[in-house]
Specification:
Length: 443
């Protein structure tokens, strides 16, 4: 039997109400609603531990946490979409103020001016970073931002094919596949080499730098897309924009990005904040919401929700997104991060990532048995072909308090994707390469 959740004193439904609802649905009892759930996974059969006191529970939770291999306690060279960067102390100091922590969604602008202003600043900084006309107040995360960008391109062009480079993260391609199933969109995985797109292609999706850490030829890809009537959608790394030309300079139509690297802890994968920007003429098809700046009846600066295209705000068939969760607090962290570092700071962080990663790559390329199989310019990540399966190497690295790179053997035989940021000291880099040399010598 499934516990009668409806028996709660906080649920005002009477027995007669429940019977009527079950009759309309067409089932005999509440238990029938759970028939698709395997018996062994229904709550009465779960082997749950006995209740614990607060002290016992804390002790148990600390024991679980102690099992984690945490960057900082371990030298970390793992990236692939989530990155460890220095977070200035001011980020937490401001973001955890009660007026920000307790504010949820700014439906009432007259009492949400602070939240609306921070979202406006977030939009402004994202537009400046990407060199795009307009940015919204944030998305769930980077991967869903990219998928939403593809759906937006389909709405704009009224075409049903999506082309995506094979150098885009396989995880992002999976998210795109999930988003495209219901509307029945076709996805073509294409290479960065010259060649035409399929007829009826709405957009070309590019990751810059790509999944392997290397820079794509955005000028050529932009011409390739636009010459065939497709939009150019760029998934960009915001940290790299402190050093490299932004996608807007390559005539990108829509830009998506992950904001985690800017002031947001790794936190085992979330919550993060997605960045979304586009050309002005496409603003009506942009998902999410946009905060605008105006003046009130007394001429004072005021912030308002200018555009909301979510289904709870407008007719459902006209909605461009069903995003409901506010990421304003996470976006605030990125806003503070950018403001605290400024243009010079953002450039310096990017330079440190670039030079430290190239230093590490130069050391690894000199180790017998290891090689860098890819050519081109890379930012903070690069691919290493190892003499052993990367999984085995990473196990040995953990014994030396080092978190190695991502195993990408599915894309490159014995390939490891190595990430180096400004957080990796010279000593960490040299210890890492020395450990690789020692492990490789015993192969």
């Amino acid at each position: 039997m499934v516990p009668d959740a409806f028996a709660s004193p906080y649920t005002p439904n009477t027995d007669a109400d429940r019977e009527e609802m079950l009759r309309v649905i067409g089932v005999a009892s509440v238990d029938d609603l759970f028939l698709d759930v395997p018996v062994e996974h229904r709550s009465p059969s779960l082997d749950l531990p006995e209740p614990q006191s607060e002290m016992e529970l804390l002790r148990y939770a600390h024991g679980l946490a102690a099992m984690n291999k945490v960057p900082g306690e371990y030298a970390c060279f793992l990236g692939a979409g989530a990155y460890r960067h220095h977070i200035p102390a001011i980020v937490k100091q401001i973001a955890t103020r009660s007026e920000f922590m307790t504010a949820y969604t700014p439906y009432q602008p007259e009492v949400s001016q602070g939240t609306l202003q921070t979202e406006y600043e977030f939009q402004s900084m994202c537009a400046q970073l990407t060199s795009m006309d307009v940015a919204n107040a944030g998305m769930y995360d980077g991967s869903t931002s990219l998928a939403e960008a593809a759906l937006m391109a389909v709405r704009i062009t009224k075409l049903d094919r999506i082309a995506i480079l094979d150098s885009v993260s396989p995880l992002y391609r999976e998210v795109l596949q999930t988003y495209s199933q219901a509307p029945g969109l076709k996805i073509d995985v294409v290479s960065a080499g010259r060649g035409g797109l399929e007829e009826g292609t709405a957009c070309l999706l590019v990751q810059q730098p790509n999944f392997f850490g290397y820079m794509e030829d955005l000028a050529e890809l932009s011409e390739r897309a636009h010459s065939q009537g497709a939009l150019l959608v760029v998934y960009s790394d915001p940290i790299s924009l402190g050093l490299f030309k932004p996608p807007g300079d390559y005539d990108a139509d829509i830009v998506a990005a992950e904001g985690q690297a800017m002031g947001v802890p790794l936190t085992f994968g979330g919550p993060y904040v997605g960045i979304f920007a586009c050309k002005q003429r496409f603003i009506r098809q942009m998902p999410g919401r946009i905060v605008g700046k105006t003046v009130d009846s007394r001429g004072r600066t005021a912030y308002v929700l200018t555009l909301q295209t979510r289904e709870q705000h407008i007719r459902r068939e006209r909605a461009t997104s069903n995003i409901c969760t506010s990421v304003a607090l996470i976006a605030l962290m990125s806003t503070i991060y950018i403001a605290a570092n400024g243009k010079r700071g953002m450039k310096r962080i990017a330079e440190l990532c670039y030079h430290k990663s190239h230093y590490a790559a130069s050391l690894i390329s000199d180790i017998p048995g290891y090689e860098l199989p890819m050519d081109g310019t890379f930012f903070r990540e690069f691919v290493v072909r190892c003499p052993l399966p990367p999984g085995e190497i990473n196990d040995k690295l953990l014994d030396r308090s080092i978190i190695g790179g991502l195993d990408i053997s599915a894309q490159v035989p014995n390939g490891m994707l190595v990430c180096v940021t400004e957080m990796n000291s010279r000593e960490e880099i040299e210890s890492f390469t020395a450990a690789l040399a020692e492990i490789g010598a015993k192969a």
